[in-house]
Amino acid sequence: MSDYKSVRVTRGRGGWGGPLTITPTPDKPLIYSVTGGGIHPVAARIAELTGGEAFDGFKSSAPFDKIAVAVIDCGGTARVGVYPMKKVLTVDIHATSPAGPLANFITEELFVSGVKPDDVEEV
Amino acid sequence: MSGIAAATRVVYESTVTAVGGQVEAFLDHGLLIFFGEESPAELHDMSVRHRPTVREEGPRPGDVIVLGTQELEVLAVGEVVADNLLNLGHLDLKADGGTEARLPGDVCVAVQPLPLLHAGDVFRIVRGGVAAGPAAGTAGVAS
Asked: Which InterPro entries match (chain A) (predicted)?
């Protein structure tokens, strides 16, 4: 099989949702960073601990079914909903709670927020 | 035009390049989402994409956001708005009348219908009074 490992991501201070367990697979290897300024440190840490492939969503796009987790720095409305809507596990750097037209897609099983690198732990 | 404050300055200006299929539905929620052209494909359907020509600063309360022919006075701005706009071309515009941003990405303007933009329309942020007179206070609605 593969050498992928799992991590557990818990909500940070003021955050919401989770915890999420993230395990990349050969079919779903991407740690998808949709943040400004390249691969966010939280995405880099998840990739390092799991063996997943860090991927910059602002450089090129990937199909949803290749994404093990999306790491976003959403201030609350757009990105915060679109990945959970597609059932993609979503980690928000900012401490947002469900809001906006897509809020009903945002569940504790799919979404965790307020996350810092220290909130990512090996399982 | 007359009575314009001396220090009027465009801090951000951009041209709309594409408007996603879900944008009109979001307008019914008083919400308009912008992203730069390089944003991931999955965000295109819900957002107005655009190509900036001036990218100096994010909005502040009191600035005026000009969307096509409509002018909107900024009432409140969340803490991550400037980074989002300057790095990603991303803006969440909410016509909710909020005087405090409830979410860190919010830019709040008065409750009003937001325009459906089209490719080629210009989007800019102006500081120092477009609609507002030199005495400050409320922005003029008529022009």
From this structure: PTS_EIIBC_GUT_N (IPR011618), PTS_sorb_EIIBC (IPR004702)
